[in-house]
Each structure stands twice: as C-alpha cells, then as structure tokens.
C-alpha cells in the first residue's frame, strides 16, 4: 500500500497480518453485475467476455476490429484490471447488421473468452454497472489472532468507503497533476486527463474527511447537520440524533462530500468541518470550482454483501459483492498488510 493511503485512518486499526495478493491472475476474480435485463433486440450487440491478463481498453480495440467498427462504437459499463480474471459486458453499435462471428477473435486472443451475446436497444455507459462480485485469494498468509475478529467486524459493520489508490494514479500522479493544474502550471485540454484529475481531486478531499471522522469516531455516528442517504434514494438532512436508529438498522448511511462549486448541503458543525477539510487542499478546491463541478454525496461506510471466507493454512479466500463505485482495496486494507491491488 502506498504512502498516500497509509496516511489515512483505519476503521479497525492498522492490520498486523501480512500476505500476498495477485500472485496469479486467478487470485483476483471480478464479475460485473449490471442489474438489468437486455431487451433482446436493438442496434447494440452485447458481448460478455472473460479476460485474463488483458485490460479492458485493449479488448475493446480488438473487438472493434473483429466487428468491423471503430473503437468509439464499443462501450462498457466499467473498466477492469489487467492483472486479474474479470468478466464484463461490452456493447458494439451495429445498426442494421447481423451478429458478427467472433470465432477468429477468440482464436487469436487466448486471454479472452466470449461467454454470451445478446441484443439491446441502448449502449452500455459508465454508471450502468450495479455491482461487482469479487473473489480474492491471499497467499503466504502470516495470520495474527486478530484476522478472524476483523473479518467478523467487517461482515457486520463494513469498512471505511475510501476511494482506492488507483483513483489517484501511479504514485499519486493524478493528484500531483491536479494540484499543478490548480496552481496554473499548465492547461489541460485532453478530456480524459481532465476527468482523471478532477476525479482525483474530489476523491482525495472525500478521503481526508472520512479519515478525520474515523479519528473522531464519528464515521458511523450521526451528527446534527449530517446528510443521510437512504436505500430508496432520498437524501435527508439530520435534525435529530434519533436518526442514528436508521443508520444502525442499515436503512441509511452517513455521507461525506464529493466537493463541488456549490455550497455544502450539510449544516452546523458538519458543514464547518467539511469546509475546513476542503480548504486544506486549496489547489484541488480551485480546480473543482474552476470547472464548475456539482456537489454530490457518498456514504462514509461500505458494507460488503454476501461476504464469506475460508482459511486453508497460509491461504485465505474471501468473496464479497460491492456496489459500483466502491473499491475492494477498502476491504483488503483493513485485513492485511499488502501489495497494491485494483478493484
């Protein structure tokens, strides 16, 4: 884990257990959950792939060639790590055309399998993803007595919902560039770079706020002025500490800021704190405001679903499902001292 993330507080204390991740691609398996059914007809040819040792954009380019279209005609719901075995859907815009044969594509790309195809009336877009299912194997495990206790705590109470270090680029370079941009050291014209830098800026301010609330033991404790996100999509300003019952029951989660150029929607001491944390990063705040980013909210805590684990000697296999936009690193960070992972 990089120094960038090491500076942030833990939910259950820094782990003592050590182990290795991703010794083999099969030790990190990710499966997309879209959360909707395809129409069965339409202009978009849907392809479910399983890939090993390849990144999503490479497969997109190769699939586009196989289907006789431009790379921009192939879309996805989420990018997936190269150093893993991952399953995901891609959509190919083929209006008025028959489903292409993909036998040669599969034969010439041994790291890619085609699992299924379908037709749909809309292309996939980032944000269409509902969740990801993970199965992670830790090897060379040097397990302390705390490991089982932490697994139980995570299954029951969740983990801090940090943005993973991959959001900030290798060695935090996206964050470094965002600060330099905010300092007017260069102009950013490339749309993808703008997106990376702005995302890194907002994500880091969120992480700082979450880390602070963890140190104050308020990440799971409601304060008057908080914003709660309910399962039905409502966001509610806390006016009474009785709202803690909804959080404890899993009906709602306390949120933190994805900072924008508009005012924080929180109130009282919570709004003061969120402003103070954001102002610790004036260059990032300038970038966010100059680009007129709109404020949004993100739950402070992350509850893995369908979590299970099995210990076999110095090997731990752990499986769980996370909502889209969440990071497997947030779970594994609480369990073991580890190398970098994505997801």
Please write out the topology.
Blueprint: H1 3-6, E1 18-21, E2 28-33, E3 44-52, H2 56-67, E4 74-76, E5 85-93, H3 103-107, E6 112-120, E7 131-142, H4 146-157, E8 159-160, H5 173-182, H6 191-215, E9 227-230, E10 235-237, H7 244-248, E11 252-258, H8 268-279, H9 282-290, E12 296-299, E13 301-302, E14 305-312, E15 315-323, H10 328-335
Parallel strand pairs: 2-5
Antiparallel strand pairs: 1-7, 2-7, 3-5, 3-6, 4-5, 7-15, 8-13, 9-10, 9-11, 11-12, 14-15
Helix pairs in contact: 5-6, 5-9, 6-8, 6-9
Keywords:
Pseudouridine synthase; single chain; globular; 343 residues; 30% helix; 10 helices; alpha+beta; 9-stranded mixed β-sheet; 4-stranded antiparallel β-sheet
Shape: globular
Order of helices and strands: HEEEHEEHEEHEHHEEHEHHEEEEH
CATH class descriptor of the domain at 165-299: Alpha Beta
Beta strand %: 25-35%
Poorly predicted segments: 339-343
Outline the biggest β-sheet.
Answer: 9 strands, mixed
CATH architecture of the domain at 165-299: 2-Layer Sandwich
Oligomer: single chain
What is the number of helical segments per DSSP (H or I, 4+ residues)?
10
- The CATH homologous superfamily of the domain at 165-299 corresponds to TruD, insertion domain
Helix/strand structural class: alpha+beta
Give the radius of gyration.
Answer: 21 Å
Number of strands: 15
State the end-to-end CA separation: 14 Å
Description of the structure:
There is one protein chain. Among the domains are: 36-120, TruD, catalytic domain (Pseudouridine synthase, 2-Layer Sandwich), CATH 3.30.2350.20; 165-299, Pseudouridine synthase (2-Layer Sandwich), CATH 3.30.2340. Helices cover 30% and strands 27% of the residues. It has helices at 3-6, 56-67, 103-107, 146-157, 173-182, 191-215, 244-248, 268-279, 282-290, 328-335, and strands at residues 18-21, 28-33, 44-52, 74-76, 85-93, 112-120, 131-142, 159-160, 227-230, 235-237, 252-258, 296-299, 301-302, 305-312, 315-323. The strands form three sheets. Strands 1, 2, 3, 4, 5, 6, 7, 14 and 15 form a nine-stranded mixed beta sheet that branches. Strands 10-9-11-12 form a four-stranded antiparallel beta sheet. Strands 8-13 form a two-stranded antiparallel sheet. The longest helix has 25 residues, at 191-215.
